[in-house]
From TrEMBL, chain A:
This is Uncharacterized protein. It comes from the Bacteria.
Automatic annotation (TrEMBL), chain B:
This is Heptaprenyl diphosphate synthase. One of its GO terms (biological process) is isoprenoid biosynthetic process. One of its GO terms (molecular function) is metal ion binding. It comes from the Bacteria. InterPro entries: Isoprenoid_synthase_dom_sf, Polyprenyl_synt, Polyprenyl_synt_CS. PANTHER family: ALL TRANS-POLYPRENYL-DIPHOSPHATE SYNTHASE PDSS1 (PTHR12001:SF69), GERANYLGERANYL PYROPHOSPHATE SYNTHASE (PTHR12001). Belongs to the FPP/GGPP synthase family. Its cofactor is Mg(2+). Keywords: Magnesium, Metal-binding, Transferase.
Length: 150, 326
């Protein structure tokens, strides 16, 4: 059974996705559980944890949609896979801006680019995404602890 | 005179700036397929309308920062080129600018990743150069392609839909084409510190040019020969896209039944006859009239901005958009 955090994050993201896109977030729990475990290690406000997980899910689903595209898939199925990935990559930017997660964009942008380069080389390294979130949370925690101490 | 000459902008310098987006990326070896594919794509040509629009926009502000403006101009072309790579996959188009399309050369997945790289590189550069948070937010949200994708979804959901309204067609055209053109003028102007009312007028001007451009593009699909188009005339309708000429033709009760009968299984010979009847109707004249109406509205905006010397550049853009072969 999916944890409440995953359910809430999916619900939040689904609400942000335009109905015209017709995207359904049919994720496997295994795809998001490592990120959920990571978030639970930090004392984050519930809303922020939900938002960060939503952003992670948007990128994760974009990666999954585009990795499903190959020569055997054609027509509307291919069109939707390409568009869903494109739309969700742009959604992650919109969500970060909407939720004031500017440092997260700066942190993730080179990583998402590097993931595309690795995939292009035929040496996918999608785990970089989770590692990037891990480092971001660590830095964010240090920053917040330092500012509290001051 | 070519558009870039009328605007006194070196196209070679624009192309160099675009190529530098990948050449100066430390994560991409210059000899890699990725770098070569992008450089080849840039060198295959293009009028660079969007980068030129960014530069023109910057001429309306008091403090143009040339470095930033040119980088934004290159970013705009990167976003556009990335969308074309993915469009070619979606449309199953084997040719782009007279050359084999990227997905045919590299494979579908690889071409998707080239497009993704280009979009991601733009985000990375904007996030890195923007020290001012307000500008960072503005540029990123402007160049995010959510609306562009929505335009594609709208097109997809209305395939062979003969009840689509003109408003829905115009909304789709705005999302797919006009919004990015409008954004180019506005981000250029804003980066140079133009006043709010000026960059809003420039946005509106770009939107009207973009609408006229898309409508004319849909018209050309009916008026140009298959040789000029590089595909059969009426190919949009053959693929189920109900564009403005078709919407106008549907208002003719003699034509409507044969148009509505077209679906994905209709033989090409039957569609040929319907296309000929649309070509002979007044639908094409009405389509051109709406395209011209948008240009007239764009002209009115130029008149509002005539105290700025750069209004002449808007005139050059308008002249370019109105001068496309019909």
């Amino acid at each position: 059974m999916k944890s409440k955090l995953i359910q809430d994050a999916c619900h939040l993201l689904q609400g942000e996705i335009s109905p015209e896109a017709g995207i359904h977030l049919n994720l496997l729990e295994d795809d998001v559980q490592p990120m959920t475990d990571l978030l639970e290690q930090y004392d984050l406000h519930q809303l922020r944890a939900r938002r960060l997980l939503s952003i992670y899910i948007a990128i994760k689903v974009a990666l999954l949609r585009h990795s499903s595209c190959d020569e055997s898939i054609t027509g509307e199925t291919l069109t939707r896979l390409v568009l869903d990935g494109d739309y969700l990559y742009s959604m992650y930017i919109q969500l970060c801006l909407e939720w004031n997660e500017y440092d997260l964009i700066t942190h993730l942008a080179p990583v998402i680019k590097q993931i595309q380069i690795k995939r292009m080389d035929g040496k996918p390294d999608d785990d970089k995404l989770l590692k990037a979130f891990e480092l971001f949370l660590k830095l964010d925690h240090s920053r917040n602890s330092a500012s509290k101490a001051i | 005179m070519k558009l870039n000459e009328a605007l006194d902008i070196s196209l070679a310098a624009v192309d160099r700036e675009i190529e530098n987006m990948v050449k100066f990326d430390k994560d991409v070896p210059r000899s890699s397929t990725l770098a070569k594919s992008i450089v080849d794509l840039v060198r295959s040509g293009g009028k660079r309308v969007r980068p030129l629009m960014v530069i023109v926009g910057s001429r309306f502000g008091p403090t143009p920062n040339e470095r930033k403006v040119w980088r934004l101009a290159a970013a705009a072309e990167f976003i556009h080129a990335a969308s074309l790579i993915h469009d070619d996959i979606i449309d199953d188009s084997p040719v782009r600018r007279g050359q084999t399309a990227l997905h045919v050369k590299l494979g579908v997945q690889e071409a998707i990743y080239v497009g993704n790289y280009m979009s991601a590189r733009v985000i990375e550069l904007i996030a890195a150069y923007s020290a001012e948070r307000e500008r960072f937010v503005y540029d990123l949200s402007s160049l995010a392609t959510t609306q562009l994708c929505l335009g594609e979804y709208q097109q997809l959901s209305h395939l062979y839909d003969y009840d689509v309204t003109a408003e829905e067609y115009l909304e789709k055209s705005k999302n797919k084409t006009a919004q990015l053109m409008a954004t180019c003028l506005r981000i250029g102007a804003q980066s140079a510190g133009a006043k709010d009312e000026v960059f809003n007028l420039l946005y509106s001007f770009g939107e009207k040019l973009g609408m006229s451009f898309q409508i004319l593009d849909d018209l050309l699909d009916f008026t140009q020969s298959s040789q000029q188009l590089g595909k059969p005339a009426g190919s949009d309708l053959r693929k189920g896209q109900v564009t403005l000429p078709v919407l106008y033709a549907l208002q003719d009760s003699r034509l409507a039944p044969s148009i509505r009968a077209i679906n994905s299984d209709t033989p090409s010979s039957e569609i040929d006859a319907v296309i000929a009847s649309i070509q002979a109707s007044d639908a094409l004249i009405r389509t051109e009239a709406l395209s011209n109406q948008y240009l007239d509205e764009a002209q009115a905006i130029i008149n509002e901005l005539d105290m700025y010397p750069a209004h002449k550049d808007l005139q050059a853009l308008l002249h370019f958009f109105s001068g496309r072969d019909k």
